[in-house]
Amino acid sequence: MSTVTKIKAIINGIPVEVDQGATILEAAHKAQVNIPTLCKHPDLVASAGCGICIVKIKNNRKMLRACCTPLEEGMDIMTHDPEIVQTRRTVLELILSNHPTDCLVCGRNNDCELQKICAEFGIRDDRFERILPNIPVDSSTKTIILEPRKCIKCSRCIDACQNMQDVWALSYVDRGFKTRMAPSGDIKLAESPCVRCGQCAAHCPTGAICENDETQKVWQLLQDPDKHCVVQIAPAVRVAVGEGFGYPVGTNLTKKLYALLRRLGFKAVFDTNFGADLTIMEEGTEFVERFVNKKGPLPLITSCCPAWVDYLEKYYGDTISLFSSAKSPHEMVGALAKTYYAQKKNIDPSKMKVISIMPCTAKKYEISRTEEMSASGFQDVDVSLTTRELIRMIKQAGIDFKQLPDEDADLMLGDYAGAGTIFGATGGVMEAALRTAYFAITGENLKDVNFTAVRGLQGVKETTINIKGTDVKIAVAHGLKNVKYVMDKVRDALKNNQPPPYHFIEVMACPGGCVGGGGQPYMVTDDIRKQRAKGLYEEDANLPHRCSHENPYVAQLYKDFLEKPLSHKSHKLLHTKYVSRPLYTR
Amino acid sequence: MVVETLKDDVKAVIERWKDKEGNLIMILHDIQDRYGYVPREAALEVSRQADMPLARIYEVLTFYNYFKLTPPGKFTISVCLGTACYLKGAPALIEEIRRLLQVDEGHTTKDGLFHLQIVRCLGCCGLAPVITVGHKVYSAVKRTDVMGIIAEHKTVEA
Q: For chain B: N or C, fewer Cβ within 10 A?
């Protein structure tokens, strides 16, 4: 065990002791101070870009940035004397001199870190002449909107895109006063390697990067008497939506959400967790076919995450044959809503509109990714909203969310097992698949369905599961930078004709999985990711069915409609194809 | 711009610098020496062959004034904005050139003839304000001289 050296210092006259290497910003919490900052995010390295977090150190003439200055033994620090506060004010006024003031019509109005800090500092006038760059809005991806005019050059999006996600769509171009964030040398975002994961938007402190807000589109559909609007919610939404209404982080609000969605005007409320159970039936069977019956290459790689699908198509096009052909859960629910459900309920599918509520920006792209996304004969999912957009819709409707009663989903496409709900956390898809694969291989149910080795926030989780004497080697990666380690091993083995290093791989693009998705409420940290995941695992533990194959409505669906997993009909409705795509289209 | 030898040119340049740390700048220098600027096709080819994100390449290309992203003009007009030239009226000369040629600094006219660049001291402050066109130096230039200087080079071209 390595020993950590402790550092003792004084902050605002209060003695503090922290681990060596901690910055002044981190250490200040021990003296009950939150030093303000606009550029430092707990997920990311300090860029020292904004200059708000300056502090004074005794016997040092200069003010230093707390975000990137490690605490040293014996330091005597002041975090907020009148001169510091005044200097921070000036820094803010300088930032504002290059920032538009159209807050009332900005995507981050009332949820903006710059706006908040300006309110706290009581900025009342423009001390410096305002000079705004004339850079056009980029809405080319239709999922993420770039407004570089509103950028304060904090570097968070660039660090998230380059280092956290290893995508390299965004960078700075030019220098000095002309510095601006732009996709890969001034092309459109859609022409760049962007995979629409939305981590840039989730980390942006201002309105410079936002999801494409489609709430008005949904209101239009809801008020159209000719349309039959149905809705589904993804696993991770239920444990994050409460953050918009003052609930403790991680509170699971599934049943309130069902009631809410009916009151917004949806004719039926489905659950993407049902689709997750179905994904496991298809993907789990696919795994057994490849692993036991040797029909197809290994490792099998999960494909529920559309940002990961896009990343693989762009960066690992040579490994497409390893990808599960199963569609993502919400696409399965969309295809079945317009076929199975429409037939049972005698609804004209051409008049049905399926809206998905997702923790994700990339789902907006996925719904029209390929022609298989219109397997029902119509686009299977019509609109995909993020959790943030749903929170805004609830507030627009004026519904008192906290007072709503609990309701159930429309169970035909809405019932789910515990396996379905843990899809929202890293490792969840793998765990769900193992529960059902065990049954498919052995014909018996597991005594203990918990695979704790695949849970948690470690970037890559590798383990071997023994299924009645047969070893299954698995890997789980989340946060796209962690993919390289796993996929390079796979590539090397392929190249050298060696047996595959794993049999089954799960990847989720966002750190923590969907609970940390690019469409979730802002200011996520590892602590928040853990609490949201906890909300899902607790639900799983308390559900009557834990395994996807035990879901009675999934069984009914196969009996009445699909016949069996990987049947001809399943293939047509629930599976898709992938193509290798160029990184740059210009 | 499409050059048939582009792939091979880039390959040779990368080969030349492959063992040097921080070789991106050297690679881009060589490409600019070869083509007079760094065409997007060349940047993309470097990205592919050196397995380096285009975003990183453009960070470098746009950070250093030295690198050009558009073809240079046949004649480069350099206007000195050193202290002496500045005080003796160089800003008015820039304004006049921009008006006559409809071109911004760092850019090339549509006909590809003139590239306008701003430079710091040319080392002949006694002659301020100074303009150079190609290798020819014009001293004590007045605003009214600019049209003639441009016409002189247009005539050469014709």
A: C
